[in-house]
Write a structure and sequence with these properties.
This protein has helices at residues 17-32, 42-45, 47-50, 87-92, 115-130, 147-153; strands at 2-3, 7-11, 57-64, 69-77, 98-106, 135-140, 157-161, 170-173. It is an alpha+beta fold and 185 residues long. The protein starts with a strand and ends in a 12-residue tail after the last strand.
């Protein structure tokens, strides 16, 4: 577990699943502004099953000093679903060498404290240590409060704007060096 004076970062565990689920569900409803879809949000409903802690899928949580989950960030192998993402990215990420940074969600009362930046750095460091990934990618919603500014502030490079497309998202790839010196794959 790594930390900061106000919070610490830890892998998802049985003790943090309920708190992670609460943060994720709130983020999908309020920040992403999309209705719950049991297929697309199956990982939100059952994070322990979808993020087993392997190199292909894991979720980290930030805990406040009282042990409450205040944020999440994870990784899963980067294949995208055809029809739900731009075709050139589905093709680009089909080789299994892309890490998808996922579910970067922070409770409103825990924002602007470096929590998301620390979680992203921890996810990227773990992906880099594994050595299987050549790039780290993510998608975000323009309507999500602060998301685009956050990613662009980290130096993320816009690779596709599908705001008017089926995903409603913008797609980014992170640079070779992530925040706090962590190196994404």
């Amino acid at each position: 577990m790594t930390g900061h004076a106000a919070w610490s970062v830890a892998p998802l565990s049985p003790a943090t699943v309920a708190g992670a689920r609460e943060v994720l569900r709130r983020c999908v409803a309020e920040d992403f502004g999309v209705p719950h879809d049991p297929v697309l949000h199956a990982d939100v409903d059952d994070p322990a099953r979808h993020y087993p802690g392997t190199a292909e899928a894991f979720l980290l949580v930030a805990l406040d000093v009282g042990g409450r989950v205040v944020a999440t960030a994870g990784l899963r192998e980067g294949r995208l679903r055809p029809g739900l993402a731009p075709g050139h990215l589905v093709e680009r990420y089909a080789d299994g060498r892309t890490a998808q940074l996922v579910r970067v969600c922070v409770r409103p009362d825990a924002r602007r404290r470096g929590t998301a930046r620390a979680l992203v750095a921890a996810v990227c460091a773990r992906a880099a240590a594994d050595g299987r990934y050549e790039r780290t990618a993510l998608h975000a919603y323009r309507r999500s409060p602060g998301a685009v500014a956050f990613w662009e502030g980290l130096g993320a490079r816009l690779v596709a704007d599908d705001t008017a497309g089926p995903s409603g998202s913008v797609f980014y790839e992170l640079p070779a060096a992530a925040p706090d010196g962590a190196r994404p794959a």
